[in-house]
Amino acid sequence: MSNWKDDCREHKEETGLSWAEYHERYFVHRHQLDDLHTQIETLTEHVEANKNTYQKMQRELHEVRALVNHE
Description:
Blueprint: H1 4-15, H2 19-26, H3 30-70
């Protein structure tokens, strides 16, 4: 059975990093994933809010154009 060093050895050697540097740069730990999930959720909420604001502004602009063209 191989371990992570065996699986990553070729790529590690290509990078020229030590095992500690390679592990630090290329491995993601559970607490980092949890932080990333939280950040993604927050960003998703911001994108959704911006999308909703944009759609509302589009509707309002359409209404203004309709009123201007109607006169």
